[in-house]
Amino acid sequence: MAVSEAAPVATTFALASGTVAAEVTGPEGAPLVVGMPGLSANLRSFDRVFAALPGHRRLAFDPRGRGRSEQTPAGTYGWPSHVADILEMADRLGASTFDLVGWSMGGWVAMELCRLAPGRVRRLVLIDGGGIPDQQAMPVVYAGLERLNVVWPSRERFFELVSPLPHYAPWNDFWQGYFEYELEDVAGGVRTRTQRPGPWEDEMYRLSRDPYEVWPAVTMPSLLVRAQREILPGMKYIFNAADRDRFLERVPDSRCVEVDANHYTIAADVDAIAAIRSFLEED
User: What is the C-alpha separation between 125 and 135, in angstroms, rounded?
Assistant: First the structure.
Protein backbone atom coordinates (compact mmCIF):
# COMPACT_ATOMS: atom_id res chain seq x y z
CA MET A 1 0.00 0.00 0.00
CA ALA A 2 1.37 3.45 -0.91
CA VAL A 3 2.15 5.69 2.01
CA SER A 4 0.83 9.22 1.68
CA GLU A 5 3.43 11.90 2.09
CA ALA A 6 3.26 14.64 4.70
CA ALA A 7 2.33 18.10 3.47
CA PRO A 8 5.18 20.45 2.56
CA VAL A 9 6.65 22.34 5.52
CA ALA A 10 6.57 26.09 4.91
CA THR A 11 9.59 27.77 6.41
CA THR A 12 11.83 30.80 6.09
CA PHE A 13 15.59 30.97 5.93
CA ALA A 14 17.23 34.00 7.51
CA LEU A 15 20.16 34.19 5.10
CA ALA A 16 23.06 36.59 4.88
CA SER A 17 21.19 38.26 2.01
CA GLY A 18 17.80 38.50 3.72
CA THR A 19 14.74 36.35 4.41
CA VAL A 20 13.82 33.67 1.88
CA ALA A 21 10.47 31.85 1.91
CA ALA A 22 10.70 28.13 1.21
CA GLU A 23 9.01 24.76 1.46
CA VAL A 24 10.84 21.59 2.46
CA THR A 25 9.36 18.18 1.67
CA GLY A 26 10.48 14.62 2.08
CA PRO A 27 12.37 12.70 4.73
CA GLU A 28 15.40 14.08 6.52
CA GLY A 29 18.51 12.26 5.41
CA ALA A 30 17.22 11.58 1.90
CA PRO A 31 19.18 13.04 -1.03
CA LEU A 32 18.37 16.72 -1.45
CA VAL A 33 17.04 18.20 -4.69
CA VAL A 34 16.78 21.99 -5.02
CA GLY A 35 14.51 23.80 -7.48
CA MET A 36 15.57 27.22 -8.81
CA PRO A 37 12.62 29.01 -10.49
CA GLY A 38 12.53 31.31 -13.49
CA LEU A 39 12.83 35.07 -13.85
CA SER A 40 9.67 36.17 -12.04
CA ALA A 41 8.57 32.78 -10.72
CA ASN A 42 7.88 31.41 -7.24
CA LEU A 43 8.30 28.10 -5.40
CA ARG A 44 5.03 26.69 -6.77
CA SER A 45 6.93 26.19 -10.04
CA PHE A 46 8.14 22.78 -8.87
CA ASP A 47 4.93 21.36 -7.37
CA ARG A 48 4.48 18.67 -10.02
CA VAL A 49 8.15 17.84 -10.51
CA PHE A 50 8.71 17.46 -6.77
CA ALA A 51 5.54 15.43 -6.27
CA ALA A 52 7.14 12.81 -8.53
CA LEU A 53 10.27 12.57 -6.34
CA PRO A 54 9.07 11.12 -3.01
CA GLY A 55 12.46 9.51 -2.38
CA HIS A 56 14.17 12.89 -2.18
CA ARG A 57 14.20 15.68 0.31
CA ARG A 58 13.06 18.66 -1.75
CA LEU A 59 13.72 22.37 -1.32
CA ALA A 60 11.51 24.80 -3.24
CA PHE A 61 11.91 28.50 -2.57
CA ASP A 62 10.97 31.99 -3.70
CA PRO A 63 14.19 33.64 -4.92
CA ARG A 64 14.87 36.99 -3.31
CA GLY A 65 12.53 39.63 -4.71
CA ARG A 66 9.92 37.04 -5.67
CA GLY A 67 6.83 35.63 -4.00
CA ARG A 68 7.04 35.86 -0.22
CA SER A 69 10.79 36.34 0.03
CA GLU A 70 12.37 39.65 0.94
CA GLN A 71 12.92 42.23 -1.79
CA THR A 72 16.57 43.13 -1.31
CA PRO A 73 18.13 46.45 -2.42
CA ALA A 74 19.25 47.31 -5.91
CA GLY A 75 22.63 45.86 -6.72
CA THR A 76 22.05 42.64 -4.73
CA TYR A 77 20.72 40.42 -7.53
CA GLY A 78 22.45 38.52 -10.33
CA TRP A 79 23.38 34.85 -10.71
CA PRO A 80 26.11 34.73 -8.02
CA SER A 81 23.71 36.18 -5.43
CA HIS A 82 21.16 33.43 -6.04
CA VAL A 83 23.98 30.86 -5.97
CA ALA A 84 25.01 32.09 -2.52
CA ASP A 85 21.42 31.74 -1.28
CA ILE A 86 21.09 28.17 -2.57
CA LEU A 87 24.40 27.11 -1.05
CA GLU A 88 23.53 28.63 2.31
CA MET A 89 20.16 26.85 2.39
CA ALA A 90 21.72 23.54 1.37
CA ASP A 91 24.27 23.96 4.16
CA ARG A 92 21.48 24.62 6.66
CA LEU A 93 19.84 21.38 5.52
CA GLY A 94 23.09 19.47 5.97
CA ALA A 95 23.55 18.65 2.27
CA SER A 96 27.17 18.63 1.16
CA THR A 97 25.97 17.60 -2.31
CA PHE A 98 22.57 17.85 -3.94
CA ASP A 99 20.69 17.59 -7.23
CA LEU A 100 19.75 20.90 -8.83
CA VAL A 101 16.83 21.68 -11.14
CA GLY A 102 16.79 25.08 -12.82
CA TRP A 103 13.87 26.32 -14.92
CA SER A 104 14.45 29.17 -17.39
CA MET A 105 16.58 31.76 -15.52
CA GLY A 106 17.12 29.03 -12.97
CA GLY A 107 19.17 27.17 -15.58
CA TRP A 108 21.74 29.95 -15.82
CA VAL A 109 21.88 30.25 -12.04
CA ALA A 110 22.30 26.48 -11.75
CA MET A 111 25.29 26.44 -14.10
CA GLU A 112 26.80 29.40 -12.29
CA LEU A 113 26.54 27.39 -9.07
CA CYS A 114 28.39 24.53 -10.76
CA ARG A 115 31.13 27.02 -11.68
CA LEU A 116 31.39 28.72 -8.28
CA ALA A 117 30.99 25.60 -6.13
CA PRO A 118 32.47 22.64 -8.00
CA GLY A 119 31.61 19.29 -6.46
CA ARG A 120 28.37 20.40 -4.80
CA VAL A 121 25.95 19.33 -7.58
CA ARG A 122 25.47 15.59 -8.12
CA ARG A 123 23.08 15.81 -11.08
CA LEU A 124 21.84 18.86 -12.98
CA VAL A 125 18.50 19.39 -14.75
CA LEU A 126 18.01 22.40 -17.03
CA ILE A 127 14.38 23.05 -17.89
CA ASP A 128 14.28 25.14 -21.07
CA GLY A 129 17.00 27.54 -20.00
CA GLY A 130 20.73 28.04 -20.15
CA GLY A 131 21.46 29.16 -23.71
CA ILE A 132 20.86 32.43 -25.57
CA PRO A 133 17.13 33.02 -26.11
CA ASP A 134 15.83 33.97 -29.54
CA GLN A 135 15.27 37.72 -29.70
CA GLN A 136 11.72 37.15 -30.97
CA ALA A 137 10.86 35.39 -27.69
CA MET A 138 11.93 38.17 -25.34
CA PRO A 139 8.94 40.53 -25.85
CA VAL A 140 6.75 37.81 -24.37
CA VAL A 141 8.99 37.66 -21.28
CA TYR A 142 9.20 41.44 -20.96
CA ALA A 143 5.43 41.82 -21.28
CA GLY A 144 5.13 39.50 -18.29
CA LEU A 145 7.51 41.68 -16.28
CA GLU A 146 5.53 44.80 -17.17
CA ARG A 147 2.41 43.24 -15.69
CA LEU A 148 4.04 42.74 -12.28
CA ASN A 149 2.98 46.13 -10.92
CA VAL A 150 -0.58 45.97 -12.25
CA VAL A 151 -3.41 46.04 -9.69
CA TRP A 152 -6.45 43.98 -10.71
CA PRO A 153 -9.81 44.81 -9.13
CA SER A 154 -10.30 41.27 -7.75
CA ARG A 155 -8.93 37.75 -7.84
CA GLU A 156 -11.89 36.74 -9.97
CA ARG A 157 -11.06 39.40 -12.55
CA PHE A 158 -7.39 38.40 -12.55
CA PHE A 159 -8.23 34.78 -13.31
CA GLU A 160 -10.78 35.80 -15.96
CA LEU A 161 -8.01 37.66 -17.81
CA VAL A 162 -5.09 35.29 -17.25
CA SER A 163 -6.59 31.81 -17.56
CA PRO A 164 -7.41 32.10 -21.31
CA LEU A 165 -3.85 33.18 -22.24
CA PRO A 166 -2.10 30.74 -24.59
CA HIS A 167 0.99 30.80 -22.34
CA TYR A 168 -0.85 28.60 -19.82
CA ALA A 169 -2.93 26.34 -22.07
CA PRO A 170 -4.37 24.08 -20.93
CA TRP A 171 -5.27 25.94 -17.76
CA ASN A 172 -5.31 23.55 -14.80
CA ASP A 173 -4.82 23.27 -11.05
CA PHE A 174 -1.07 23.78 -11.43
CA TRP A 175 -1.57 27.35 -12.66
CA GLN A 176 -4.47 27.97 -10.30
CA GLY A 177 -2.27 27.08 -7.33
CA TYR A 178 0.70 29.00 -8.70
CA PHE A 179 -1.20 32.27 -8.98
CA GLU A 180 -3.25 31.84 -5.82
CA TYR A 181 0.07 31.66 -3.95
CA GLU A 182 1.38 34.69 -5.85
CA LEU A 183 -1.51 37.12 -5.41
CA GLU A 184 -1.83 39.50 -2.46
CA ASP A 185 -4.50 41.98 -1.42
CA VAL A 186 -3.64 45.66 -1.89
CA ALA A 187 -5.57 48.91 -2.03
CA GLY A 188 -7.87 48.69 -5.03
CA GLY A 189 -7.71 44.94 -5.50
CA VAL A 190 -4.91 42.38 -5.89
CA ARG A 191 -1.44 42.28 -7.41
CA THR A 192 1.39 39.79 -7.68
CA ARG A 193 3.72 39.62 -4.69
CA THR A 194 6.66 39.60 -7.10
CA GLN A 195 7.52 43.13 -8.18
CA ARG A 196 9.70 44.38 -11.01
CA PRO A 197 13.08 45.34 -9.48
CA GLY A 198 14.55 41.90 -8.77
CA PRO A 199 13.56 40.25 -12.07
CA TRP A 200 14.64 43.29 -14.10
CA GLU A 201 18.04 43.40 -12.41
CA ASP A 202 18.51 39.68 -12.99
CA GLU A 203 17.61 40.10 -16.66
CA MET A 204 20.12 42.94 -17.01
CA TYR A 205 22.71 40.66 -15.44
CA ARG A 206 21.93 37.91 -17.97
CA LEU A 207 22.38 40.35 -20.83
CA SER A 208 25.85 41.19 -19.51
CA ARG A 209 27.01 37.56 -19.51
CA ASP A 210 27.93 34.95 -22.10
CA PRO A 211 26.12 31.78 -20.95
CA TYR A 212 28.42 29.61 -23.02
CA GLU A 213 31.22 30.54 -20.62
CA VAL A 214 29.54 28.61 -17.77
CA TRP A 215 28.83 25.47 -19.79
CA PRO A 216 32.31 23.98 -19.08
CA ALA A 217 31.40 23.95 -15.36
CA VAL A 218 28.75 21.30 -16.09
CA THR A 219 30.93 18.25 -15.45
CA MET A 220 28.28 16.17 -13.68
CA PRO A 221 25.54 14.19 -15.47
CA SER A 222 23.07 16.70 -16.93
CA LEU A 223 19.62 16.57 -18.48
CA LEU A 224 18.28 19.29 -20.75
CA VAL A 225 14.48 19.31 -20.93
CA ARG A 226 13.54 21.41 -23.95
CA ALA A 227 10.16 22.75 -25.06
CA GLN A 228 9.31 21.74 -28.64
CA ARG A 229 6.65 24.44 -28.94
CA GLU A 230 7.55 28.10 -29.38
CA ILE A 231 7.03 30.34 -26.35
CA LEU A 232 3.98 31.63 -28.28
CA PRO A 233 3.19 30.76 -31.90
CA GLY A 234 5.62 32.62 -34.15
CA MET A 235 7.70 33.96 -31.22
CA LYS A 236 10.54 31.38 -31.26
CA TYR A 237 12.30 29.79 -28.30
CA ILE A 238 14.02 30.47 -25.00
CA PHE A 239 16.27 27.44 -25.67
CA ASN A 240 16.50 26.96 -29.41
CA ALA A 241 17.50 23.88 -31.40
CA ALA A 242 20.92 25.28 -32.31
CA ASP A 243 21.79 25.71 -28.63
CA ARG A 244 20.44 22.22 -27.92
CA ASP A 245 22.86 20.75 -30.43
CA ARG A 246 25.71 22.95 -29.20
CA PHE A 247 25.07 21.96 -25.57
CA LEU A 248 25.03 18.24 -26.31
CA GLU A 249 28.25 18.56 -28.30
CA ARG A 250 30.15 20.66 -25.76
CA VAL A 251 28.93 19.32 -22.43
CA PRO A 252 30.12 15.80 -21.57
CA ASP A 253 27.64 13.34 -20.04
CA SER A 254 24.68 15.45 -21.16
CA ARG A 255 21.45 14.32 -22.72
CA CYS A 256 18.24 15.98 -23.93
CA VAL A 257 14.57 15.16 -23.90
CA GLU A 258 12.13 17.27 -25.91
CA VAL A 259 8.50 17.52 -24.88
CA ASP A 260 5.32 18.78 -26.48
CA ALA A 261 5.00 21.91 -24.36
CA ASN A 262 5.92 25.59 -24.42
CA HIS A 263 8.31 27.41 -22.12
CA TYR A 264 5.63 28.05 -19.50
CA THR A 265 3.87 24.68 -19.46
CA ILE A 266 6.94 22.46 -19.64
CA ALA A 267 7.45 21.82 -15.90
CA ALA A 268 3.87 20.56 -15.59
CA ASP A 269 4.19 18.27 -18.60
CA VAL A 270 3.90 14.57 -17.75
CA ASP A 271 6.67 13.54 -20.15
CA ALA A 272 9.04 16.16 -18.76
CA ILE A 273 8.29 15.07 -15.20
CA ALA A 274 8.83 11.41 -16.05
CA ALA A 275 12.18 12.19 -17.69
CA ILE A 276 13.35 14.24 -14.71
CA ARG A 277 12.32 11.56 -12.26
CA SER A 278 14.07 8.82 -14.22
CA PHE A 279 17.24 10.88 -14.51
CA LEU A 280 17.44 11.83 -10.83
CA GLU A 281 16.71 8.31 -9.67
CA GLU A 282 19.64 6.84 -11.61
CA ASP A 283 22.56 5.60 -9.53
Answer: 24
